[in-house]
Amino acid sequence: MYASHERAKRLIIFVHGFLGQTVSTWKEFQHSGRVGQWWREADMLFVGYKSTRVNVASVGHLLIRQLPLFFPTPFPPAMQVKGVAVRDDTMSPYEELILVGHSLGGLVVRCALVEAAQQWHYSPPGTERPILLSAQTRLFSPATAGFRPAGFLGLAEAFGMRGISEMYLRMSSAYLDLQPDSSMIQETQSRTKYFYEKTSEPALQARILWANPDNVVKAEGYMTDLFADSVDGKSHLTVCKPHDGYTRPWQFVESGE
To answer: Beta strands 96-102 and 84-85: pairing type?
Structure first.
């Protein structure tokens, strides 16, 4: 958790992709306070998980279970450093929730959202709406249509994985979930369409920023998506990494465009 020194109006949750890292995947997002006031009024939560040891559904369920600890009220342990409050107001609820996923993280986010929508749809009347469904959804080159046909070669090139074989990666449930014909890929898409038609939940309508070219994942969105664009000259790994010479990721998370 990166807590703002100012009163935070929003919580932004970042979910990295396959073989990604909790914070370094996102490069300078943790230093976004210098970009503008919108970012200075944001707390940022970076989700860590072992992508080679877990499956997509388990991480999605983790998001659903743990989110009430962090939203809408700030997580108390994160609001202090060595017993000193990080800001004057650490108790006011957030006004916005934004989910940001990259690559496999995009599939995790989609899976979590549709699971929350399904649970609520089949809950008894009067059941409180899941907190996760209050989110705005931003995805960088999501793996929601799976790997490209040469997905392993793309991964090997992107990560410099000369010493890692595809046979080793196939021991990972998440890697198998990323195959284009996997049940996870197909069911997440069909369930998203079905439950959006049933609930009209805006959280199920993602905004997407693709890398161009992307030699790792298939650049295919869902019919329910609100917005999609691409960034020329950015790879699958770099499309989500902002810096002073590449400010589009900051703009995309803030505005969705």
So the answer is: unpaired
Q: What whole-number distance in Å separates Cα of residue 98 and Cα of residue 221?
A: 19
Question: Other C-beta atoms within 10 Å of 190: how many?
Answer: 12
Cα separation, 91 vs 8, in Å, equals 10
3-state secondary structure of 146: coil
pLDDT tens column, 163-213: 556 655 666 788 788 888 899 999 999 999 999 999 999 999 999 999 998
pLDDT tens digits, one per residue of 65-79 = 999 999 999 999 999
pTM greater than 0.85:
yes
- In this structure, are residues 101 and 142 in contact, taking their beta carbons and an 8 Å threshold? yes
Encode 51-102 in three state secondary structure.
CCCCCHHHHHHHHHHHHHHHCCCCCHHHHEECCEECCCCCCCCCCEEEEEEE
Angle of helix 104-121 relative to helix 183-199, nearest 10 degrees, comes to: 50
Cα gap 116→210, rounded to integer Å: 26
Among the four given CATH numbers 3.60.15.10, 3.40.50.1820, 3.40.309.10, 2.30.30.520, the one describing domain 10-255: 3.40.50.1820
Phi/psi at 70 (5° precision): -115, -20
Domains of the chain, residue spans: 10-255
Burial 25-42 (b: 16+ CB within 10 A, else e): bbeebeebbebeeebbbb
Instruction: Report pLDDT digits (tens) over 97-107.
Output: 999 999 999 99
